[in-house]
Amino acid sequence: MTENLKVEVVGLNRVKGKHLIAQVKLTNTGSEKKLSWTGEMSDNTRPIGKIRWASGIGVLDAQARTWILPYQPADFPCLCSDQDRDDLDHFIDPGQSISLYAVMPAPSGNPVSTTVVTPVGPPMVDVPISDDPPVTPPGMTIPDPDAEPVTTVTRRLVTPSESLDRTEETADDGTDLHVSLSSDVLFAVNKATLTPKAKTILARTAKLVDASSGASVKVEGHADSSGTDAINDPLSTRRAQAVRQALSTVVTRQGVDFQAKGYGSRRPLYNNDTDEGKRRNRRVTVAFAKPQPATAATPPTTPAPGTTGLTGTGKADGQPISMEITGLRRLAGDLGLLTYRITNQGDSEARFNELHRAQDWTSFKRRAASNITLTDVAARRQYLPARLQVADGDSVDSYCACTDVSGVRLGTEKFDPSRQREFWSLFALPETAGTVNVKIAGFTDLQVPISSVRGYSTW
C-alpha cells in the first residue's frame, strides 16, 4: 500500500513452546523521501488514538480462525517495537532499513509454518516457524513475555456467506455456526406465524443441526429499529419461539436442547440507517456447534492464477482503470486468500472509490475494500469478506479482513498515473470447489481457479 516500502519476514521463532517472536525488516527502497513507518505497521482494529508502532504485526491461526497480535503489557501499547522503549526514529531514510519485532502467543497445534500478517500488504502464507532461539540484529533486545504481566490480544475471524435468494446468512467463527434467517421470508409483517416458504428454509437449517454434535441450539429473534421496544421485544421473542418449535419437530438428532430468546433491536448486525441494513437486521438467528465434515474434502487441483486472462477494465474520473486477479489460494480451515491489483492506466490522477461500496459495508467499524463477492454458482451460495471481531463488553465491533482504506490508508483509492496497488481479502471457500465466480467492484465477473500454491515472505 505504501510505495517504496519493502517488508520482509526475517525471523519467526517459537519460544518455550508457547510464545512466538516475529522479526520484520522494513526497507525504504526509494531514493528521495523519508518514509514514516509507525502508522503503517500499527494495528488498525484498535480505537483511534491507540494505534501505535508495530502493534499490527501478527499471525493468522487459520485452523482456529484467530488473528493473533502482540501481547499487551501494562505500561506499553504492545510487546513489540516501540519508539520510546527501543529508541527508534519515526522515519526510514531512503535506501535504509530498520528491524522490528513482535512477541505474541504461538499459533495452536504446534505448526511448522504459519501466515504472517501486517497492515501494509496481503498476508504472507507458509512462513516457516523455527524452534531455535531467535537471532537478533545488534542493539535489539526482545522482552521476555514471562517477565511481566501481559494480556493476550486476538481477533476472532468470522466468515459470512449467504444464499443467493437472500433467505439466510451464515457466519462461521470456526467453532459455531450462526444461521440468520430472514424474518421477511419467515413471517408476514408484524406476525409471528411461520409462512409456507419457511418450512423449506428451516429444513436446510435442520440438516445442519443434525450434522452438528452440539447439545444445545440457541434461537434468537431480532428486529430493526423501526418500532419501539414495547413492540420489538415481544415480537422478536414470539418469532424465536415459533422457529424453535418448528425446528424441534424436524431435527432428527436426539438430545438437543432448544432455547429461544428475543432481543428486539438491541443487537443489530448492520446499520439501521439503510433499507438494506434494516432488512438484514430483521432476522431469527439459529446458533449451534459447527458441523465437522465426515471425511476430509479433497478440492480439485487447479493451476495458480497469473496472467491468464483474469483481468478487467473500467473507468474512474474519466481515466482507464485495470484490475488483475493475482491469486486465490486455499489456506487451512477452508479459508481463502484473494489478491488482486488495481492500476491507473491513464495520464491523470483518478480516484477509484468503488472498492468500499459493498452492500454490507455498514457492518464494519471502518471503511475497507470490501466490495467483493465470491460465488459458488452450483451451490447458489455467495461468500463475503471475512470479519475481524473485537469485543468490548457486550458490544462487538467488526473490521474487514481485507485492505483498509481509512485512517492512514485514506488515500488508498487515489491513483496517480500508472500507479498500481495490491489489494487482498480473506474469505471462506467451498470445501470441494475448484473455481468460484469473483466479482470485484464494478469489474466484469471472472471465473477464478482456487490454487494451493502458496509462499510469500516479502511485499
TrEMBL record:
Domain of life: Bacteria
Residue ranges crossing the lipid bilayer per the database entry: none
Segments forming domain OmpA-like: 174-292
Keyword annotations: Cell outer membrane, Membrane
One Pfam short name: OmpA
Presence of keyword Glycoprotein: no
Start and end residues of each stretch annotated as Disordered: 262-319
InterPro entries xrefs: Bact_OuterMem_StrucFunc, OMP_bac, OmpA-like, OmpA-like_sf
Biased composition (Low complexity): 293-314
UniProt subcellular location: Cell outer membrane
Matching PANTHER family: LIPOPROTEIN YIAD-RELATED, STATOR ELEMENT OF FLAGELLAR MOTOR COMPLEX
Name of the protein in question: OmpA family protein
Species whose genome carries this gene: Nonomuraea purpurea
